[in-house]
Amino acid sequence: HHGDDVMQTANGGFIFYGRSDATLNPGGVRIGTAEIYQQVNALSGIEDSIAVGKLSQQSEEIWLFVKLSQSVELTPQLTDLIRQTLKTKCSPRHVPRKIFALSDIPRTRSGKTVELAVKQAVNGQTVKNIGAIANPEVLEEIAAIAVETPQPVLTNAL
After folding, report:
1. In 4-157, where do the E strands start and end?
2. What is the pLDDT of residues 88-112, one digit of tens each?
3. I need a surface site. Which of 15, 67, 70, 123 has the fewest CB within 10 A?
């Protein structure tokens, strides 16, 4: 499935939530990223967000990146608010494993978020369409975060 995530209102109008071509799959459950953005971007202090799947040995975990309003910091309280909002308004499966603040959200020159490029950066892959990205320096920020973030190690019990 890809395209736009749209809902028709009771009066016949439409609400446009965003692209639905990015599907997360934590624990085998399909989640559209637009569901996450709808809740997170409505919170005070958050200007924008992007969620991608970080591949782990077991499956995929959700990593959420947020662009904060000026003078807002990603405090433990704000992190908890994001998690609680997604848990209650969406489901426990929508809650990201990790939340990071970015200077900006990577976009194409035409203003679309680039979830695939962010997913590639998070998973240590080469970003293929870097020339189409208006602010590629943010992808370097993301790649650095991914390298610095310890990964869970599975050990075989003897």
Report:
1. 4-8, 14-19, 23-24, 31-32, 46-55, 60-68, 98-102
2. 999 999 999 999 999 999 999 988 8
3. 70
Task: Reduce the DSSP state of residue 88 to 3 states and report it.
Answer: helix
The total number of residues written for the chain in this structure? 158
AA letter at 125: Q
d(CA 52, CA 65): 9
User: Could you give all domains of the chain from N- to C-terminal order, each with its CATH number?
Assistant: 4-105 (3.30.300.30)
State how far the alpha carbon of 41 is from the alpha carbons of 12, 49, 67, 150, in Å.
24, 7, 9, 27
Residues 31-51 as b or e (16 or more Cβ within 10 Å = b):
bbbbbbbbbbeeeebbebbbb
Model pTM score: 0.82
